[in-house]
Amino acid sequence: ETGVTQTPRHLVMGMTNKKSLKCEQHLGHNAMYWYKQSAKKPLELMFVYSLEERVENNSVPSRFSPECPNSSHLFLHLHTLQPEDSALYLCASSQAWDRRFVGYTFGSGTRLTVV
Amino acid sequence: RKEVEQDPGPFNVPEGATVAFNCTYSNSASQSFFWYRQDCRKEPKLLMSVYSSGNEDGRFTAQLNRASQYISLLIRDSKLSDSATYLCVVRGGSYIPTFGRGTSLIVHP
Predict the structure, then answer these.
(1) Nearest residue of A to residue B93, measured between CA atoms
(2) Tens digit of each residue's pLDDT (9 = 90 or more) over B34-65
């Protein structure tokens, strides 16, 4: 496989459930990201990992918990979500996070619905 | 003033037309700029970076105006396949990227 792969593509979960989103990149990039895209809103950066260390947590509620076990994998653990958390969750990677950044490669996203 | 602003459109143009979008940004210290394209229910894909001197890639031309704090994207000879939402991305010194809401383009026969 090439590029950035996200699973699952679609997820419906109840407010009391626990689920995880998975992202894998095959590009040899050093930085990975979670973004949230809601209808009529710009993409919102949630988390940034550079070389497996979290460098940015953009004031995200604790019901979202990221995990980056290595530079190729990124998870987003979800628990006790709210209906307003329903959105498209996009994973992205880039060669670097700092001034050497030249653009993201996004995964196809997980469309999450909280019921 | 929002950090990054785009006219949401939609811009409705016939095939073959030339269309231009602008994106304004509020942080004068912004350092890098990009245009992304997002098709309906798909992920954003990098269209082009925007360089200080302006740059062109086929039918697409991107320009940066630091004095007025905006970037632009010009599409010549529009194709039906150009229909999409065009997102502008601005990065400042902190490296935090800010996305615009996007401009919707519809190219009709």
Answers:
(1) A99
(2) 999 999 989 999 999 998 888 999 999 999 99
Residue B1 is predicted with a pLDDT of 63
Q: Let me know: does A85 contact A18? Beta carbons within 8 Å.
A: no
Mutate to test the interface with B, among A35, A106, A111, A112 (most CBs of B within 10 A): A106
User: Which one of B43, B50, B89, B104 would you mutate to disrupt binding with A, by most A Cβ within 10 Å of its Cβ?
Assistant: B43
User: Can you tell me the distance from the alpha carbon of B55 to that of A107, in angstroms, rounded to the nearest whole number?
Assistant: 27
Sole residue written with tokens 């260390």: A53
Q: Compute the distance between CA of residue A99 and CA of residue B31 in angstroms, rounded to an integer.
A: 9
- Which chain A residues touch B23 with a CB distance below 8 Å? none
> How far, in Å, CA of B25 to CA of A10, rounded?
34
Q: What is the DSSP string of B66-99?
A: TTTTEEEEEE-S--GGG-EEEEEEEE-TT--EEE
CB of B31 within 8 Å of any CB in chain A?
yes
Q: A43, A62, A69: which is closest to B96 by C-alpha? A: A43
CB-based contact (8 Å) between B44 and chain A?
Answer: yes
pLDDT of residue B4: 93
**Nearest CA to CA, how far is B17 from chain A (Å)?**
27
What are the tens digits of pLDDT across the range A45-100? 999 998 888 887 778 999 999 999 999 999 999 999 999 999 999 999 999 888 78
